[in-house]
Amino acid sequence: MGLPILLILFATSAAAVVAYGVHPDLAQYSSGLATIMIARRLMWPLISVSLILCIALIGLVIAGKRRAWWLIGLAPVLALFVHRFGPGSPGPTAVIENPAFVEATDANAPEAGDYVVGLIFEDRAYAFPYRALFARPVVSLIDYDQRMLLLWSAYANRATAVSLTRELRPRDLEVVSMPANSLVVYDRRLGQFISGVTGRTLKGGDVVGFSNPLDTTKTTWADWKAAHPDTRVMAGWNRASLPSRPILPAYKMRVPPVPEIGTNVAMLATTQPAAVRDDVKLDVPANLTIGDTRVLLLRDRSGRIRAFDRHVKEDLFLTFELANGARKREANLIDIDTQSTWTLDGRATDGELKGQRLRRIDLDDRLYWGVMKFWYPDLELIETGG
How far apart are CA 72 and CA 79, in angstroms? Predict the structure, then answer.
């Protein structure tokens, strides 16, 4: 009697690790990410062990050494495998290469208020609806000899797009899980785990096959279409059950309780990871120092936060304030160092520095503080005070 029990116990245990070893909520524990990586690496050996034990039990029944009702003990194994590999589960099917696109005027295009991730690849505008990305969060595009990859972490509202080298093949990728609300992708050929939030490996290293980052824009379809009338949009997966707007984090994380996990922030691409609240006032431009970068933070005429590097040349680091009087009508800013006037897009229109441009600092808004703090432990929340 003891042998069938042992066979069922070990077969079920191996199947349980396969089914729940990559569960997103494991990220709340100190060794959670390591557990997920180990469980994925051992997935096929564990499946083999579980199946061999199941076959051994079936063999005992066929040989007449045990009664047939022992086979009922294999039901949990079957249920666990269905849970892991059933419809909607993560895996290679969540990765798509060269999906179908339609023109902006097509009947299958998103509704005006639906959100999309927009980007420019090889001088062509593309839009990826939130609905489509929720079903297929890893998208690869090929334009002649140029290739790119888009990773979408829906529960972080974070899009990461990069150009690819020949070292990485999208067909070798599979979605593993969503620990700490970030997409995690596994490269079966190169053995690397990639975070969709950071665009780096889970150990913090560079991803083999990733080249230059590509700018992405998260906005409504109406706004993206107005800015890029000739855009193409990813078709399919327009089911009403899929989210068409940003959604809140769904999985547990190990982060400080304050600020709240769901606080909306904008993250700056500075040497020291930093973020500001999306609702920061910025009634006046903020002159900040973040790590080694002197930053100008302001809102443009549309209300979007913009960031610029205040370093112009040599050892000149400008300090900005709002212009007044006639100058305010011509250009919105003035630097107190040279009294040059500047537009809100970082261009000097008058004065000693006329013609100069400030370097734009990439900024990703509508993110969630808790998610970004987990994946960027050194992330600082900057309070501008104005």
Answer: 12
Same-domain status, 367 and 296: yes
- Let me know whether 81 and 103 are in one domain: no
Q: Which amino acid type is present at position 362?
A: D
- The tens digit of pLDDT for each residue in 252-268 reads 888 887 788 889 999 99
Look at residue 315 in the predicted model and tell me its pLDDT: 84
Percent of the chain with pLDDT over 90: 76
Helix (H) or strand (E) holding 177: strand 173-177
Q: How far is Cα of residue 128 from the mean position of the Cα atoms in its chain?
A: 14
What residue type is 194 in one-letter code? I
Closest to 208 in 3D by CA, of 195, 197, 229, 192? 192
The answer to whether residues 97 and 209 belong to one domain is: yes
> What is the layout of strands, in order, in the sheet containing 305-309?
286-290, 293-299, 305-309, 359-360
35-72 residue pLDDT tens: 999 999 999 999 999 999 999 999 999 988 888 889 99
3-state helix, strand, coil in the chain (%, to 5): 30, 30, 40
The total number of structural domains in the chain stands at 3
Q: What angle separates helix 2-20 from helix 43-62, to the nearest 10 degrees?
A: 150
Note whether residue 242 is domain-resident. Answer: no
What is the pTM (predicted TM-score) of this model? 0.89
**Structural domain boundaries enclosing 76:** 2-85
* 23 and 145 fall within a common domain: no
Measured CA to CA, the distance from residue 320 to residue 337 in angstroms comes to 8
Q: What residue type is 340 in one-letter code?
A: S
Tell whether 64 and 153 lie within a shared domain: no
Residue 14 forms part of a structural domain? yes
